[in-house]
# Entry
Amino acid sequence: MLYISGVGKRFGERAVFGGVELRVEAGEYVAIVGESGSGKSTLLNIIAGLETPDSGDVVFEKIKINAESDDTRTRLRRDNFGFVFQAFHVLPHLTVQQNVGLPLLLRGFPQGQMDEKSKIFIAGVGLAGRESSMPRELSGGELQRVAIARALVGGPRLVLADEPTGNLDQDNARQVLGLLRDQVKAHGAAGILVTHSEAAAAGCDRRYRLTGDGLAPI
# Structure
C-alpha cells in the first residue's frame, strides 16, 4: 500500500535524515520511534504530502505523492488518509457528532448518511450517548477518542498518528493506544504511529528507530 524509497530531508545545510526505506501493507500497524528533533513528524508530513522530500519517493497505491500537484495531494489526503494528532484538534464549537462527521461533510455526504456513520464510529470508540456533548465536557482521553473516530469515519486507507498520547496520562495513553491499533486493524487500514516512546510503540506489528541514516528495526 505504501512504499518509501530513499527519502531524505534537509533544512538548509542540516541533513535531518536520509535513505529512509519502508513498506507498509493494509492491516499493518507500524511504529517509528525517535527523539525530539529527529525528524519523525517531518517524515510523517512527507508521507502525507504536506512536505516534499529532498530525495527519494513516497508511493501510495502506485501514486508517487511527491510528484503530484498540491491539488492532487489535497484530494488524496481527504479521500484516503486519516490523521490523529497530539493536540487532538477537536473543534470546540462543534459537538462530538459534528466533529466526527467533518471528513464526511467535506466530501459531500448527505446529512442522514453522515449522521449514521458518525454514530457508528462514536460507539466504536466507546462514546455512545455522547454525540451531543461539547468538547469542553470531555476529558483528554475522551477527546482523543473523538479524534480517532474522526480519523476513521471516512474509511481511510492509511492512518497517520503523530504522538497521539503526548497529552495524556499513563492509563489514558495505554487505553487510547490500544483503541487506535484495534480500530485501524478492524477497518482494514494501514497505520503509522510516530512517537518518542518505545513503550507506546510496543503494541505495533513492527517498530523502527529513525536516525540520520534512515530507519533501523528495533
